[in-house]
Amino acid sequence: MQPEAKISWPNPIEINFIHKIISNNVATITCQITSSLGKGIQVPGTLIDSGANCSLKSKGLAKLLGIDIDKNKKSFVKWYNNSLEFIRTCYNVPITFGYRDNSCTILEDFLVMDDDKP
Gene3D superfamilies annotated for this entry (predicted)? Predict the structure, then answer.
């Protein structure tokens, strides 16, 4: 009878597959983004990152809401893979968190990604 093998971590096994899973450990909140024209859209899962340098949204969402995009100010964003992207800016966009009497509206400037998807 052979002795049982001792299991130690890390177990030297070959990993030859990757499972892509949806993150469930990110805190999100529902909010409404409104334009100065009164158009609004409910966003069911908004990520709040108070430590971020900037807030981002798509060009498609800005167009959908009729929000003016400042095409004179040139901004660049450096992504995780070191690529640079030229981005425009929207100013003083109202964002409402919560509902009715239990709500808060803030004005936020957004960098606008060159993406037509809302």
Answer: Acid Proteases
